[in-house]
Amino acid sequence: MANIGIRELRNGLSKHIATVAAGATITVTDHGRPVARIVPVDQPTALERLIAEGVVQSPKKRRGSLPEPMRVTGTVSDLVAEQRG
Asked: What pTM does this model have?
């Protein structure tokens, strides 16, 4: 696994994508701090591996829909202060 800065990735994008296509994983860094990982598309994700190993299970039912957003007036700070009473 190689660590590559954003500027280096941008300047040699085609070369780095070819490296990933050949099976390598690249960790992208910003000022030395890892921020992203580029992996081959046919490589299973960590979750897919855990499911295949039987460590975790896929959800049995889909999550319900989200409620409609509430219409409110005032700022979030005002609402929090009101709730705290």
From this structure: 0.56
- Do residues 51 and 32 touch, judged by C-beta distance below 8 A? no
Q: Tell me if residue 17 falls in helix, strand or coil.
A: helix
Q: Which residues pair with 19 in a beta bridge?
A: none
Listing from the earlier edge strand, what are the strands of the sheet with 2-5?
A: 2-5, 26-30, 33-38
* 15 contacts 34 by C-beta, under 8 angstroms: no
Nearest alpha-carbon partner for 42 in 58, 56, 22: 22
pLDDT 10s digits, 22-40: 999 999 999 999 999 999 9
CATH architecture of 1-57: 3-Layer(aba) Sandwich (3.40)
Strand bridging mode 2-5 / 26-30: parallel
